[in-house]
UniProtKB/TrEMBL annotation:
It comes from Meridianimarinicoccus marinus. This is Tripartite tricarboxylate transporter substrate binding protein. The keyword Signal applies. InterPro entries: BUG, Bug_dom1. The keyword Oxidoreductase does not apply.
Amino acid sequence: MFPNSLKSKLVLALGACIIGSSVAAADFPTRDIRLIVPWPAGGGADAISRKISNIAEQELPKSIYVENIAGAVTATGLIQMTNSRPDGHTVGVLTYDSVITLPRGQMVPGYSLDNMTPIARITSEADAIVVSKHSGINTFEELVEAAKANPGKVRVGVAPKGSGPYLSVIQLEELLGVDFNVITYAGSSSAEAEALLSGELDAAISSLGDFSGIITSGDAKGVVELSSVQNKTYTDVPTIKSKGFDLQTGSFIVLAAPKDTPADAVATLETTFKTAYDSAEFQDWLAQVGVTADWLGADEVQGWIGELQNKTFTLMDELNL
């Protein structure tokens, strides 16, 4: 048995720990928040992450800074996130590859969604086919005609095997009865944009938002979006549904923290980013770049990820991917 004096000290120490933890949670954040974007600077995911974090930090006593850590199809940066102290001061950006490609292929030891706590889904974007001005192609119909007249010659750039755009191009070849020259590019869509600019590619598949810069400049043109809903920004880009085909693919932005991050910190992050998401500044910016605002909170996003994986993995099995 402990002496009464020692008991009193233990009780006081325990009480101090509890109070200290409560104060720490109430004071969150106590330092700047690190937002890891697992793609190089300049791509669509990077732009969206920077925009919403710039607005979100206005609601906090500390700043949010973006760090680009690319590699291993997003695993390099996200493993750094999951290995960080689970206190809410490190957040990671997940895209299609983080949720589908990596878990499907079990490509990187140590990478697992089980090591993460989802905070929210912010946006979703349909994939689209964008053509280079050097290609001489101006419409979806002309692209199909060129591919049928020249099997294996029309150069289409996509992310690596297992990615959403790669899955899209395989499905397109089957739907359209064509054979493209599929060229994969590691990293973000910025590499494909450069290839479209130089004429190295005839076409590429990613979101219209990813290619907004070269579309605006006239160096590239969207010829079809792989969706059934008309894009409100790019009203001149038809949906593939309007062309008589049913194919819907795309990506998204999800924010997550390390597993075991305190619920209070996750709630603060979710509320802060939701306020930024709802702002006129962010919504207007999304409309300008053609990205769909598509919020899901922490309570919903985990279930959505599970449903997406089940659906996509089944399709991959059918296509032997």
